[in-house]
Amino acid sequence: MLNFNHEDIMKMSKIFRLNLINSLTGYKSANLIATKTDEKINNVAIFSSVTHLGSKPPLIGFITRPTTVPRNTYENILNHKYFTLNQITKTQIKSAHKTSAKFPKKISEFDKTDLDYEFKNNFQAPFVKNSPIQVGCKFLNKYVIKENGTILIVGEIKLVLIKDELLLEDGMLQLDKGNIVSINGLDGYALPKLIKRFLYARPD
Amino acid sequence: MLNFNHEDIMKMSKIFRLNLINSLTGYKSANLIATKTDEKINNVAIFSSVTHLGSKPPLIGFITRPTTVPRNTYENILNHKYFTLNQITKTQIKSAHKTSAKFPKKISEFDKTDLDYEFKNNFQAPFVKNSPIQVGCKFLNKYVIKENGTILIVGEIKLVLIKDELLLEDGMLQLDKGNIVSINGLDGYALPKLIKRFLYARPD
Hints:
The structure is a homodimer. By secondary structure, the first copy, chain A, is α+β, with helices and mostly antiparallel strands. In chain A, 18% of the residues lie in helices and 39% in strands. In chain A, a hairpin with a 2-residue loop joins strand 5 and strand 6. The first copy, chain A, is globular, with a radius of gyration of 18 Å.
């Protein structure tokens, strides 16, 4: 096997290190986070760090860096408290990836990509149209990770909208029924297929 | 589309809610985290919350709940500081899932599953044999998420071991070349295939 120690990693060229370190934790979730600005401009940006934090109450978290690309998302969430998570399908990956570009704050990514927004169910933030899982969240808290200045945003799930065929009898959403993608590294998009579900594991 | 509001979610049966809330953030990374106890018993447990935090320095984070299943992992990391992340292949999913069972602390999951451990490169924690990406980490910090009592563990990457054929020229690890899986919900294992990589996105 190839091996790299901490010193090797620190000495790598920036791009090589970014690609390597971003891919070694495995497949990542692909979420479009949509918000609105004070000027009612609808903003959307791709995040690969959205994580389940708990089910009761239903909580999610994601990592952001206020000084880099998704800073509009961060500011909008702090100002307006509401945001949405939208799963990305195979046909949306080109537009979804383009939202990672540094658009000026006054430009809506919805105007610069094939993505469309929709407001519904009286929710206070826009959803991404045609996303098979749309989740409305309210900002609860933020935690500064002092080791590198990133921020964990914690949100509570207030509304869940699901394409009917994804929901199984026991509550699971079978993601491959919606052609939902996952992310490999910084810029790779992968399409998973469910292999198997297992029973709740017990010692014997 | 089906819709559930916050009240609907809080009223759901426990299993239905667990399945739903665990699947709506999308595909999750599948990592076996291996540690050792004071009695030198090697412990391994599956985690679906490992997330990239930064590349320089190379940092990862994951969520744990000290009062539930992976508490052995949590205690071992606090006591010994070192742990490993190991990507899971298609052939390992049955054993990997079994590590989520509540084994007593004195029982090694390596004895109760088909998984084997290996020590190498003088690293202070065990790796999972035949994992195509093995990452040695050192504990740096923990953050209590007061909204639900979960804990974000932050670790620094000290050593990376990779099966040769996964590493691309620009540093990306192409996960599907190792048949690495991702997780759907609580108990679903999916096999992704890379569709496409995109260039670094710019506004136009």
